[in-house]
């Protein structure tokens, strides 16, 4: 028994190392005073300084931020509605519409939206990307909100209704405050998903619009410079903070609810 | 909303209000997803029966004589040119290998988390999902560094190969790089459902088996593993389906032989600009993914029922 648990520990430790070493290497090399990502030469902040003066990078970051904020606000509103509706009512269409975008490979949504926008003569750019991001974020928000509602005492809303509150009042003053942690967690998830998305953005951005992941993609396809390490480190730091907060607000994030 | 005579009872206003609330709450997300998910998907199905345009995209829907042009040419092309089926088989093979390796790696992690003290579990789980939430491209890029020709790993491997008199091998831009990264990116999807399952196992069953003389190996294969199958199937679906449609990993880390369905689809839409054929490939991928997800859910439910009975 003892020996077995030692093997278990070693196996699990190896898996955790496998998960984190690659990310750690990116972070470490972002401080490396060498153009090659091959060996440690010395400490420098040059790559971060370069980043701050790189106009393409700043524009891409601005675009990502704008899309991320828009997509997370709209998808949080729609996703919360979807979560509430899925919890309260027996609906057939909504759960399918909400979960399909999550269940199928991302590329499918990317190419179908590309056809859709081009056929409608809708200019590909910031707006088409934001509209696409909203579509896949709704499901994630809905799942977190529904998980929160499932853990809530429905009698509270009923009590408010019995006391004469209108459905809207009951929602606004009782249900919404109670599910707020789930809603905020959903918003943070949506923002993270949007700012990190590569595949769907790749197909819906068109030629002129660049977001951070698109810029990183073209940089690593052409030539790898440690500037990529620096921007990656910053991006990882941002998502790390957001997701830790989201996980604290909504522990259901840690369960395997991604697929329900 | 149609006004029916049956709704004129005393409770009618309340019921009508409730129905209105239902529409108000579920309407906007349904509408949004119909416009930006279902409609594009339907258009893609239609596009798969069209003729490619002279300069990319789609040819006009009606020909000179005003006849509507819908055909199955692109489907026939997919079925008759073996190179496309070959790419599909290769993608399925990569996704299968990815799923199996993920299962091997995820089992000890999920077991360890399920067996650790309750207060540590959330942290250990968070550590599993955090990499999933960090940027996908960065995780692919990290392997470019690790497997790069000047990095320590390549030097070590090729040094060892030189010692036994073998030619050096490139680690980057190879099937090895693609598979490693596929496993890396999808591992959390296997750990989560597996953990959710293992956590529910009753320790008493294992104790009973031990009392009856079963050794650790027997206890695992006769009890733990069969009971964990619903989690295994759920995890397998969560890994296999996205792995099947991946395009960025072979695009960045793969060599010329590592073209998968995702790359083929990307080519059709962005390079060849043959939308009908790209749509056919996408539809085949969707059908395969949904069939697998459905099968996994069905097996998991049946097996889950059996295991509990």
Topology:
The complex is a heterodimer of chains A (260) and B (309).
Chain A: H1 2-29, H2 46-52, H3 55-88, H4 93-103, H5 106-119, H6 126-150, H7 154-162, H8 167-196, H9 199-204, H10 212-222, H11 226-249
Helix pairs in contact in A: 1-11, 2-11, 3-6, 3-8, 3-10, 4-6, 6-8, 7-8, 8-11
Chain B: H1 12-47, H2 73-80, H3 82-115, H4 118-133, H5 136-147, H6 152-163, H7 175-198, H8 203-211, H9 216-244, H10 248-253, H11 261-271, H12 275-308
Helix pairs in contact in B: 2-12, 3-7, 3-9, 4-7, 5-7, 7-9, 8-9, 9-12, 11-12
CATH topology of chain B: MetI-like fold
Biggest sheet details of chain B: none
In CATH, the architecture of chain A is Orthogonal Bundle
CATH superfamily of chain A: MetI-like
Indicate the mean pLDDT of chain A: 84
- Quaternary state of the chains: heterodimer
Report Rg of chain A. 22 Å
What's the gyration radius of chain B in Å? Answer: 26 Å
Shape assignment of chain A: globular
CATH superfamily of chain B: MetI-like
Structural class of chain B: mainly alpha
Q: Report the portion of residues of chain A in β strands.
A: under 5%
Give the % helix of chain A: over 70%
Mean pLDDT, all residues of chain B: 82
Number of domains of chain A: 1
CATH first level of chain A: Mainly Alpha
Helix/strand order of chain A = HHHHHHHHHHH
The domain count of chain B comes to 1
CATH topology of chain A: MetI-like fold
End-to-end span of chain B in angstroms?
A: 47 Å
């Amino acid at each position: 028994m003892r020996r077995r648990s030692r093997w278990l520990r070693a196996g699990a430790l190896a898996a955790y190392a496998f998960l984190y070493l690659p990310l750690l290497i990116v972070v470490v090399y972002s401080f490396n005073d060498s153009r090659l990502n091959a060996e440690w030469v010395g400490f420098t902040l040059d790559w971060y300084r370069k980043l701050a003066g790189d106009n393409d990078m700043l524009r891409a970051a601005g675009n990502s931020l704008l899309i991320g904020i828009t997509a997370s606000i709209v998808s949080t509103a729609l996703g919360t509605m979807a979560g509430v509706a899925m919890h309260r009512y027996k609906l057939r269409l909504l759960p399918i519409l909400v979960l399909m975008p999550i269940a199928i490979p991302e590329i499918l949504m990317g190419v179908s939206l590309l056809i859709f926008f081009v056929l409608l003569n809708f200019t590909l750019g910031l707006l088409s990307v934001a509209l696409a991001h909203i579509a896949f974020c709704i499901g994630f928000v809905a799942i977190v909100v529904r998980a929160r509602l499932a853990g809530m005492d429905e009698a509270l809303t009923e009590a408010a209704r019995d006391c004469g509150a209108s459905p809207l009042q009951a929602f606004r003053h009782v249900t919404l405050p109670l599910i707020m942690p789930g809603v905020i967690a959903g918003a943070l998830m949506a923002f993270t998903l949007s700012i990190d998305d590569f595949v769907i953005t790749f197909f819906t951005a068109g030629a002129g619009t660049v977001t951070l992941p698109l810029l990183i993609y073209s940089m690593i396809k052409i030539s790898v410079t440690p500037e990529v390490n620096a921007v990656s480190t910053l991006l990882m730091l941002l998502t790390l903070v957001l997701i830790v907060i989201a996980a604290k607000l909504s522990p259901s994030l840690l369960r395997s609810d991604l697929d329900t | 909303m149609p006004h029916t005579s049956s709704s004129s009872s005393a409770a009618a206003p309340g019921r009508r209000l409730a129905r209105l609330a239902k529409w108000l709450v579920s309407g906007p997300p349904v509408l949004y997803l119909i416009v930006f998910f279902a409609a594009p998907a339907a258009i893609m199905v239609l596009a798969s029966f069209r003729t490619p345009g002279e300069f990319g995209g789609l040819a006009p829907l009606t020909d000179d004589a005003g006849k509507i042009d819908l055909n199955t040419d692109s489907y026939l092309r997919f079925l008759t040119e073996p190179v496309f089926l070959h790419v599909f088989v290769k993608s399925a093979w990569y996704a299968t290998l990815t799923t199996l390796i993920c299962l091997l790696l995820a089992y000890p992690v999920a077991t360890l988390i399920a067996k650790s003290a309750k207060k540590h579990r959330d942290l250990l789980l968070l550590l599993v999902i955090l990499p999933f939430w960090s940027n996908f491209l960065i995780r692919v890029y990290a392997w470019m560094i690790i497997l790069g020709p000047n990095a320590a790993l390549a030097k070590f491997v090729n040094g060892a190969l030189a010692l036994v008199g073998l030619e050096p091998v490139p680690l980057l831009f190879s099937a090895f790089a693609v598979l490693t990264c596929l496993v890396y990116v999808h591992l959390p999807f296997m750990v989560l459902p597996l953990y959710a399952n293992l956590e529910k196992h009753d320790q008493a069953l294992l104790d009973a088996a031990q009392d009856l003389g079963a050794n650790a190996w027997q206890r695992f294969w006769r009890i733990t593993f069969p009971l964990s199958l619903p989690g295994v199937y759920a995890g397998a679906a969560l890994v296999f389906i996205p792995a099947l449609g991946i395009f960025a990993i072979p695009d960045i880390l793969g060599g010329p032989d590592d073209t998968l369905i995702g790359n083929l689809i990307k080519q059709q839409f962005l390079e060849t600009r043959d939308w009908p054929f790209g749509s056919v490939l996408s539809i085949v991928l969707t059908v395969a993914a949904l069939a697998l997800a459905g099968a996994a859910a069905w097996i998991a439910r049946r097996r889950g029922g059996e295991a509990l009975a």
